[in-house]
Amino acid sequence: MTTTHFNTKERILGAAEELFAQHGFAGTSLRQVTSRADVNIAAVNYHFGSKENLVNEVFRRRMDDMSERRLALLRKAQAEKPGDLEAILAAFIEPPLALTLDRHGGSAFVRVLARAFAEKNDRLRKFLSDNYGHVLREFAKAIGQALPDLAKEDLYWRLDFTAGALTYAMADFGLIKRPSGVSEKAHCEKAAQGLIRFAAAGLRAG
Fold first, then answer.
1. Per residue in 136-179, pLDDT tens?
2. With the C-alpha atoms ordered 16, 20, 22, 24, is the resulting torsion angle positive or negative?
C-alpha cells in the first residue's frame, strides 16, 4: 500500500471514529465522514466498500492491538504468577484503560466503544464476538483455573459485570474526576488498581 493510500485510509478511519463518538453509528452518514476526512465517496468505497465495513475497521484498528496486549500480559501473568487472580485481572483491565491516555484518538475510541454497548447493532456485536470473543474466553478460562470452585455461570456473569465496569471507567462517566495536580497517567493507574481490587472481590464473593 502506498503512503498516499495509507494516509487516506487513516484519515477516513480517524474522521469516522470522531463522528461515531459524537453522533453514534446510525447518526453518522458517509457524507459526514468524507467531509471530515476531506476525501470523496469513491475513496471510502475503495478502502472499505460499505459503511458497515468502515464501522468494523474502526474497531479493528484499536481492538487488534489491545487484544494482543491483553493476551501477552495474560501469558506473562500465568508464567510468572500462576493462579494469581489480581495479575489476571490486571492483564484484562490495564490495556483498555491505557487507551484513555492515547493522544491519537484513544479517547474518541473509548466513546465509540461505549456507543457499541449502548446502541443495539446486532451486526457490530456479531463482528466483535466473532473476532474478539476468544479474548474473553481466554480470560474466563484463566479465572476459572484461579477460582476452581466458582460455577461457570457465575464466572461469566461476574466477568460481564467486570467488563461493564471497565467500559464505564474508560468513558469517565463516574463521580471520580481527576484531581488537579494529579497526572492523567497517575489517575489512570489508580483507577486500574481500584477496579482490579473491586473485580477480584466480586469474583471471589460467595
1. 999 999 999 999 999 999 999 999 999 989 988 887 655 566 67
2. positive
Query: Which residue range forms the structural domain that includes residue 106?
Result: 55-204
At which residue does the C-alpha cell 469517565 appear? Answer: 172
Domain count, the chain: 1
Closest CA to 190 of 97, 107, 120, 122: 97
- What region does 97 belong to: left with phi over 0, alpha with psi -120 to 50, or beta? alpha
Q: Determine, yes or no, domain membership for 13.
A: no
Q: Specify whether the CB–CB gap between 136 and 155 falls below 8 A.
A: no
Residue at 25 is within a domain? no
Does the pLDDT value for residue 200 go beyond 60? yes
Across 190-204, average pLDDT: 95
* Burial class (CB within 10 angstroms; exposed 0-12, middle 13-18, buried 19+) of 195: buried
The three three-digit cell numbers of residue 175, written as one number: 463521580
Residue 196 lies in a domain: yes
**Residue 161 maps to which CATH number?**
1.10.357.10
The verdict on residue 2 lying in a domain is no
- Cβ atoms of 97 and 170 within 8 Å: the answer is yes
User: What is the average pLDDT value for the chain, to the nearest integer?
Assistant: 89
